[in-house]
Amino acid sequence: MITQLLPVSEQSLAMASALLRQGELVAFPTETVYGLGADALNAEAVRNIFSAKGRPADNPLIVHIYDRSQLDPLCEIPEASLPLMEAFWPGPLTLLFPRKSTVPDVVTAGLPTVAIRMPSHPAAAALLRVSGVPVAAPSANRSGRPSPTTAAHVLEDLQDRIPLILDGGPCEVGLESTVLDLSHGDPVILRPGGITKDMLEKVLQRPVAVAGSVLRPLRENETALSPGMRYKHYAPRAVLTLVEGDPGKVVSLMRKRCLADRAEGRTACVLCFREHMEALRECNPHDIGSLSHPEETAHRLFDVLRALDEEGMDSVYSEVLPPEGMGLAVMNRLGRAAAFRTLRAD
Ligand code: TXA
Ligand code: MG
């Protein structure tokens, strides 16, 4: 199969919509990351998403809608979800709802809930509106690779596996949506993302918990609340190590380790904040944004992780952010990419 890559236009949207209605797959931009979509009510089409990505069948998908009127055939709508939809839809918040039987098992991996989100990206909204179908879409990467934040990333991973990629430029947020579970009464963040814990608490007027496995590996025998958390994710081929502690000491430890690895014949580099690029200039520094703008780190992270593989790195050291606000989402993805391997500099 030949993959077409087309800029978003009225024609390409019409073509994408027709493909979706015929049960084909289409990659499209959202404000978080690119998604790989199929008609959520067509089980055969949804199965093709799993084979194109190489995704384990027990990892459920998010269903994308453009209008709340699409919810009723798919799920029950708990009262507590109303203020959240009001405040954050369209936008990077995914909610779990009790599913109805119209949703094929392959979408939810047999779970009693279905994950739903309303993306704010105009091209995603237009695609959903023109096609008229709810669209099941995971991130448009091969399973185990960082999520794609540009159409070029999608092409790298899925060339010749899907008929069409809509190119809408780089994604604004750069990390996947926040996944919130309200189905057990107390709200729990299963995956942190663009909508932060503080933002959710302000609207819900109550504390929001964060699943324990967000900032550490799953323990043996622990069941993942969100099946996606079970899998090794975003792991570059390089051995990635996080370095935390006093900033001055972090910079000098990263430099020392990087140069020591090189002396032993390994290719090594560092991921650092822009403020430390100069101090780490001998270490092939990769800019992860400014210290004071975690949103910028979120926006750049997956692109930087992909570059490490292209550059054939063996060993990489990275600075960390406080796990607050957008920093929580960044540290969840960076932690998993590093298999939570951490050095303390003090
Ligand atoms: O921003 C996003 O959410 C992007 C864009 C394309 O919308 N999509 C995305 O999908 O990141 P995916 O499939 O890569 O991640 C979905 C996550 C997985 O961790 C999955 O296990 C979890 O959501 N999930 C889906 N349905 C669930 C359910 N019913 N219960 C618990 N977790 C669920
Ligand atoms: Mg994904």
Could you give a quick summary of the protein structure above?
The chain is α/β, with parallel strands linked by helices and 346 residues long.
Number of strands: 16
Number of helices, counting only DSSP H or I runs of 4 residues or more:
10
Name the CATH superfamily classification of the largest domain.
Answer: DHBP synthase
Number of domains: 2
Task: Please state roughly what percent of the residues sit in beta strands, choosing from under 5%, 5-15%, 15-25%, 25-35%, 35-45% or over 45%.
Answer: 15-25%
- pLDDT < 50 runs, ≥5 residues: none
What's the helix-strand series?
Answer: EHEEHEHEHEHEHEEEHEEHEEHEHE
Description:
This protein is an alpha/beta fold and 346 residues long. The chain has two domains: 4-215, DHBP synthase, CATH 3.90.870.10; 239-345, Rossmann fold (3-Layer(aba) Sandwich), CATH 3.40.50. It contains ten helices and 16 strands. The protein has helices spanning 10-21, 43-53, 82-88, 105-108, 122-131, 151-158, 197-204, 247-263, 294-310, 326-337; strands at residues 4-7, 26-28, 35-39, 62-64, 93-98, 113-117, 135-136, 164-167, 178-181, 188-191, 209-210, 239-245, 268-272, 285-287, 315-318, 342-345. The strands form two sheets. Strands 1-8-2-3-7-4-6-5-9-10-11 form an eleven-stranded mixed sheet, with helices on both faces. Strands 14-13-15-12-16 form a five-stranded parallel sheet, with helices on both faces. Strand 10, helix 7 (197-204) and strand 11 (209-210) form a beta-alpha-beta unit. The chain is globular, with a radius of gyration of 20 Å. The model has no long low-confidence stretch (mean pLDDT 95). Threonylcarbamoyladenylate binds at residues 30, 32-33, 35, 59-62, 92, 94, 96, 108, 111, 113-115, 117, 137-139, 176-177, 179, 190-191, 226-228. Magnesium ion is lined by residues 138-139, 147.
